[in-house]
Amino acid sequence: MTDWVQALIAEGGYLGVFLLMFGETIFPPIPSEVIMSMAGLQAAKGTMSLTGAILVGSAGAMLGNIAWYLAARGLGMERLRPLIERHGRWLTMDWAEVDRGERWFMRHGYLFVCIGRMLPTLRSLISIPAGLMRMRFLPFCLWSSIGTVGWSAMLGTGGWVLGTRFAEMEAWLGLASTLLLIALGAWYLWRVLTWRPRT
């Protein structure tokens, strides 16, 4: 995967970074850790500016974030309820938990969105609860942008600083993403096995 990402960034420049980060947000298995590290490496070689790479990468990711937000908002809580009631065990929640989550999100949602954008794997999924809970669009974009730019800047700057050692950073971040996925899978399995609907 690294080779074709590197080739697309080298040949496509800013547009390549934009498209890759948009695709990474829509389809999370494409790793932003590789994309922005490669963009930082290209900036170190002088083929693009680091600031430009960070901005276009963030713009591509934000376009994907908005797409997920609008899709979830279009689904809405009203359409979600029959799914929860019919498939509660596999979704590991009942409507009482959704109500509680909605109240929590109303109080802490903006911070949740901002910090969530800087967490591997989860960063692409944060738009879904924001859309379902109908978070206001402009604050969603503002707080998402802050977190997204922070994540892109960290990875891009890391690739720029490390130069040809970007593979080391990719390995560490890839390990973190893998461990997080394993933890999430174990947590989900535990939720399924222990889930009981509230009466």
Automatic annotation (TrEMBL):
<dbReference type="InterPro" id="IPR032816">
    <property type="entry name" value="VTT_dom"/>
</dbReference>
<dbReference type="GO" id="GO:0005886">
    <property type="term" value="C:plasma membrane"/>
</dbReference>
<feature type="domain" description="VTT">
    <location>
        <begin position="30"/>
        <end position="156"/>
    </location>
</feature>
<feature type="transmembrane region" description="Helical">
    <location>
        <begin position="50"/>
        <end position="71"/>
    </location>
</feature>
<feature type="transmembrane region" description="Helical">
    <location>
        <begin position="171"/>
        <end position="190"/>
    </location>
</feature>
<dbReference type="InterPro" id="IPR051311">
    <property type="entry name" value="DedA_domain"/>
</dbReference>
<keyword id="KW-0472">Membrane</keyword>
<protein>
    <submittedName>
        <fullName>DedA family protein</fullName>
    </submittedName>
</protein>
<feature type="transmembrane region" description="Helical">
    <location>
        <begin position="137"/>
        <end position="162"/>
    </location>
</feature>
<dbReference type="Pfam" id="PF09335">
    <property type="entry name" value="VTT_dom"/>
</dbReference>
<keyword id="KW-0812">Transmembrane</keyword>
<keyword id="KW-1133">Transmembrane helix</keyword>
<keyword id="KW-1003">Cell membrane</keyword>
<feature type="transmembrane region" description="Helical">
    <location>
        <begin position="12"/>
        <end position="30"/>
    </location>
</feature>
